[in-house]
Each structure stands twice: as structure tokens, then as C-alpha cells.
Design goal:
The protein has 88 residues and is mainly alpha-helical. It has 4 helices and no strands. The longest helix has 29 residues, at 13-41.
């Protein structure tokens, strides 16, 4: 089933769902990276947070971003379904 009735548009429903799942992974990964940077760079937070926690948080975000960028359509759809319990 295609999204558009225009035959020149090549997007299928599965490709649309995979793109939506990629955007979800990009958002979650960017949030983890931002939290990791904030824990390391903001003086008030750096005083109470362990340095390793900030780096691990940023690393987790980088791994999630990598999954979103280089993962197959099936993998990113499964990641979204794991979090939201959604048929995606």
C-alpha cells in the first residue's frame, strides 16, 4: 500500500513507519547526548554528578543515534515497538 496515489512517489507504508521510527531514535539519542553534555559542562551539575555518569550517558546517546542512522528499517521499527509497545 502506498501513501500517495501518485505513482512517482516511492514511499510505502513500511518505509514511512521506518522513517518515523528513525526520527524517534534520533530524538531519544539526542536527548541522552544533551543530558550527558549538561552533566559534564554545567558547573552546578558537574559538582554533584560523577564524571563517568556523564560520559556513559553521552555514549548511550551516541549508540542510539548510530542505531537510528545505520540500522535497518526492521531494526529501528523493532526498537520503537520495544519502547512504545506500538505496532509502529
Amino acid at each position: 500500500m502506498t501513501i500517495s496515489s501518485d505513482p512517482t512517489v516511492q514511499y510505502t507504508e513500511a518505509a514511512f513507519r521506518a522513517r518515523r521510527a528513525r526520527y524517534f531514535l534520533y530524538t531519544v539519542g539526542a536527548a541522552f547526548v544533551a543530558i550527558g553534555f549538561a552533566l559534564d559542562m554545567v558547573p552546578m551539575l558537574a559538582a554533584v554528578a560523577a564524571p563517568l555518569a556523564a560520559r556513559l550517558c553521552a555514549l548511550t546517546g551516541a549508540v542510539i543515534l548510530t542505531l537510528g542512522r545505520f540500522g535497518s528499517d526492521r531494526l529501528v521499527s523493532r526498537c520503537r515497538r520495544l519502547v512504545w509497545n506500538d505496532p509502529c
